[in-house]
Amino acid sequence: MKDVQKFVGLDVSKDTIAVAIVGAGKAAPFINLLPVWTVIFGVFLLHEQVSLMSLLVGIVTIAGAVLASL
Questions:
Q1: Which of 3, 6, 31, 38 falls between 20 and 30 A from 45, CA-CA?
Q2: How far apart are CA 68 and CA 70, in angstroms?
Q3: How many structural domains compose the chain?
Q4: What sign has the CA pseudo-torsion 23, 25, 30, 31?
Q5: Are 65 and 31 in contact (CB under 8 A)?
Q6: Would 2 be classed as within a structural domain?
Q7: Residue 7 and residue 3: Cα distance in Å, rounded?
Q8: Is 69 in a helix, a strand, or coil?
Q9: Diameter of the chain by CA atoms?
Q10: How far is CA 70 from CA 20, 24, 64, in A?
Q11: 3 within domain boundaries
């Protein structure tokens, strides 16, 4: 990780390093999972309730990210 930071010359995030390793084509579909993680953390940390529509949209989003990365 330090080698990548020295190469770039900046303090880069772990996401940037992951994209550099895996490639943008494989990493791009998973940016759509950020709202899904937000809901998951909201349920566990803030005790939020999830509606049926949110659950279905989360499943479709996960399936889309998996299909797009194949």
A1: 31
A2: 6
A3: 1
A4: positive
A5: no
A6: no
A7: 6
A8: coil
A9: 47
A10: 18, 14, 10
A11: no
pTM over 0.85: no
Task: Pull the structure tokens for residue 4.
Answer: 């990548």
Nearest partner of 41 among 64, 58, 26, judged by Cα? 58
What number is the average pLDDT over the span 4-17?
62
Which residues lie below 8 Å from residue 32, measured CB to CB, with a gap of 6+? 61, 64, 65
The kind and range of the H/E element at 23 are none
pLDDT 10s digits, 20-63: 888 887 777 777 778 888 888 999 999 999 899 989 998 998 89
- With tokens 């349920």, the residue in question is 43
In a domain, 64, yes or no: yes
Question: 69: domain range?
Answer: 25-70
